[in-house]
Design a protein that fits this description.
Helix content: under 10%
Distance between the termini: 57 Å
Low-confidence stretches: 1-55
Number of strands: 43
Shape: globular
Strand content: 25-35%
Oligomer: single chain
Mean pLDDT: 87
Radius of gyration: 24 Å
Strand order of the largest sheet: 1-2-3-9-8-7-6
Length: about 700
């Protein structure tokens, strides 16, 4: 172990610049992690630092991604209520690193744990905002090409004094929650594969479970793995799609699933990654998986246009102890539109038809709200909560969608798909309130004009270098009849009816949380953080966070008081839709990425906003006709748009290159893009790009900058 002593300037509190030297001990662990133990922060107690007490001695924690249990994103904290929310104010804030900050914090025993970007974790005293420790797994040194396809971590998990995080390069790491010291690390994916991890681990009694992503950019075959929470020993693994039949099947369920596939699907991996939704049901010792889309998207290529392709786009129930298959329900048989079932799955007990039933609730991408019996997987009901052109309804007898045949473009033309491939509900979590019986869904109304693009199965090959290519085209379109691009939707899952809906800005609002105080909290891309009456939808409180909010908030109690916490900053795949954010003006360079903590009678304030105008570069020598634009547009779209935005219009995940002078200089552009000069900053290296491709990309970006100047 290499022990070094550093004495840098460091601030323990929020925005304050503490101009004192403090001792930082950097421990370079054998596993390659970096641990910072900050000794200057006071060891204040939540019980003595919390101010006015309410007489409630026990803390209310938020120990997992979806809260305490059932992935409901509901908190029993009730001090902040409809009657008191007018007194809610900022208690403290802390400036985070310049990277993804849309993750879900955790709150346990008066501590607040925040993860950002490449799985960096900061531990705070939740009431004072004092930093206790920081942990950095230094992912940019090891992730390689996996940096190209992901934006960071959605969250972390807690169990019996231990924290668990997963890194983009696929390692599951366990650390001591009190000190931040790494206890163990295990690889969960093959480093040579296209699989990566952005999802939060989940806890199942003594186990921790994690999935992965990568089906959009590689020949992926999805799976989840359960590990012993104490030792990191692998206990079981379940694959979500069958492999090559010649190799045999891992279990009877996959042998059954293989009968629903055609052709040589295993050559493409099949997809089915479990990159987000995993819900543990302690009552039935069952874990429910929200399974992703196919690889490639196009059903004609993947499976010769035939078969349901189990277990793609399905909810799959497994025995939590053994990983054995129990049942499944498929939301999109023969999935072909990136309509994955990866959105969060909430557990609830509802009275339906006079009978009390344990159910699960999901609002996946395809625009329907599903109610499924979580004991046996029986279909109960589903209704659309947005415009759906791909299907008119879900058949109440079979539970299968009644599709519009044109949605599969059988004649090679295009189809206006609603919801689009972005989804009516993306990964930002919904919430369920046991008090109101409503689910609260961050809703998008964007569509896609889809086409096979005359791609034939025999001609198709995956674009090299982790480029996105699903074997079809999907251009975003807008429903001109809808005055709003997105909304917060409150839905009654028993009656399958809209309760209320309020418009939000941008193509999606942030993640949602409901509380026992009768409130629903959600942030918006325009920087407002709002509280709504959970029953009526009336906005009862708002705060100017001075930065976009996509992260889901949490509520917790410590020292007899209730608190709300959230992270600000824009990132994730929504950044590709930058053209839909132009009127909001999100700029990577000066966007505030912070953790904000609120309490009743909080009186802190954020520093004055200092907006910098986003201005296109001056490029008087540019000649649009000097090179063809199409080659550069295609190369940029497949490699760069995921972070830097369609048409060069960025939305916070990465700099807007139309305003970057790097695109004027061939040498500078090459050093950054091909030679990886900014890998440490999270900018991937594209070492395989030829000189001509780099020139084409630069030419295209200079063209988009010229359009911005007009």
């Amino acid at each position: 172990m290499d022990l070094r002593i550093y004495k840098p300037l460091y601030g323990c509190r929020g925005n304050m610049l503490v101009t004192q030297y403090v001792q930082r001990i950097m421990i370079i662990c054998s596993a390659g992690c970096v641990l910072f133990a900050l000794c200057s922060c006071s060891p204040d107690s939540a019980q003595t630092d919390g101010g006015r007490a309410t007489g409630r001695p026990d803390p209310i924690d938020w120990p997992g991604y979806g809260g305490s249990s059932g992935e409901q994103h509901f908190s029993p904290a009730s001090e902040i209520s409809q009657n008191t929310v007018g007194r809610l104010g900022l208690l403290w804030s802390y400036d985070l690193d310049i990277e993804n900050s849309v993750s879900q914090p955790l709150a346990i025993n008066g501590m607040l744990y925040v993860t950002t970007g490449r799985s960096r974790i900061t531990a705070f005293r939740a009431v004072s905002g004092n930093v206790v420790w920081q942990f950095d797994p230094d992912v940019t040194e090891t992730a390689g090409r996996k940096l190209r396809s992901s934006w960071g971590s959605r969250g972390i998990a807690y169990r019996e004094g231990r924290l668990y995080t997963a890194t983009v390069d696929g390692n599951l790491i366990c650390m001591d929650a009190e000190s931040g010291q790494q206890l163990w690390s295990v690889p969960t994916v093959d480093p040579a594969s296209g699989l990566y991890v952005t999802g939060a681990p989940r806890i199942m009694d003594e186990m921790v479970i994690i999935g992965n992503g990568g089906a959009d950019v590689s020949d992926a075959r999805g799976y989840v793995t359960a590990y012993d929470g104490n030792t990191g020993e692998q206990l079981w693994r379940f694959y979500t799609v069958p492999g090559n039949p010649a190799d045999g099947f891992e279990n009877d369920a996959l042998e059954l699933a293989a009968k629903t596939w055609n052709g040589e699907w295993w050559r493409y991996g099949g997809g089915g990654t479990v990159w987000n939704a995993i819900t543990y049901d302690d009552k039935y010792k069952t874990v429910y998986l929200g399974v992703g889309n196919g690889a490639p998207w196009n059903h004609e290529i993947r499976s010769e246009g035939e078969g349901d392709n189990l277990f793609l786009a399905s909810i799959v129930a497994l025995d939590a102890d053994t990983g054995a298959y129990k049942w499944h329900y498929q939301v999109n048989p023969g999935e072909t539109w990136d309509y994955n079932a990866s959105m969060d799955i909430a557990l609830a007990t509802l009275t339906i038809g006079g009978e009390t039933r344990d159910v699960l609730l999901q609002a996946p991408k395809n625009g329907f709200v599903y109610v499924i019996d979580r004991v046996n997987g029986d279909f109960i009901s589903a209704r659309p909560f947005v415009k759906t052109t791909w299907a008119s309804k879900i058949d109440p007898e079979s539970g299968r969608p009644v599709e519009d045949p044109a949605a599969r473009f059988p004649d090679g033309g295009s189809f206006d798909l609603f919801p689009g491939t972005f989804g009516a509900h993306s990964w930002m979590p919904m919430a369920f309130s046991p008090q109101t019986g409503l689910v609260y869904i961050p809703t998008s109304f964007i569509g896609s004009r889809i086409s096979s693009g005359d791609v034939k199965a025999d001609d198709w090959a995956r674009y090299p270098g982790f480029g996105s290519d699903g074997g079809m085209s999907a251009a975003p379109i807008w429903d001109e009849t809808n005055p709003s691009r997105s909304a917060l939707t409150a839905w009654n899952p028993v009656d399958q009816e809209l309760a209320w809906q309020v418009p939000t800005t941008g193509v999606t609002g942030g993640g949602v949380m409901a509380t026992a105080g009768g409130l629903v909290f959600q942030g918006e891309i325009n920087g407002t953080f709002n509280a709504y009456d959970a029953s009526s939808g009336d906005r009862v409180w708002s705060f100017d966070a001075q930065a976009p909010i996509l992260a889901p908030p949490i509520a917790f109690a410590a020292g007899g008081r209730d608190y709300i916490a959230i992270q600000t900053g824009s990132s994730t795949g929504a950044a590709a839709l930058g053209t839909f954010f132009e009127d909001i003006s999100i700029d990577y360079r000066n966007m505030a990425r912070r953790v904000l903590v609120f309490a009743l009678d909080g009186d802190a304030s954020l520093p004055a906003r200092k907006p910098l105008p986003l201005v296109a570069i001056e490029d008087p020598d540019f000649d649009a006709g000097s090179r063809p634009l199409l080659a550069g547009a295609i190369a940029y779209g497949r490699r760069c748009a995921h972070c830097h935005g369609l048409e060069g219009v960025a939305a916070g995940s990465a700099p807007d290159l139309r305003a970057s002078y790097t695109i004027l200089n061939d040498e500078t552009f090459t050093v950054i893009v091909r030679e990886g000069a900014l890998v440490r900053n999270g900018m991937p290296q594209f070492e395989e790009l030829a000189d001509e491709t780099l020139l084409d990309m630069r030419h295209y970006l200079r063209f988009e900058a010229s359009q911005m100047r007009q």
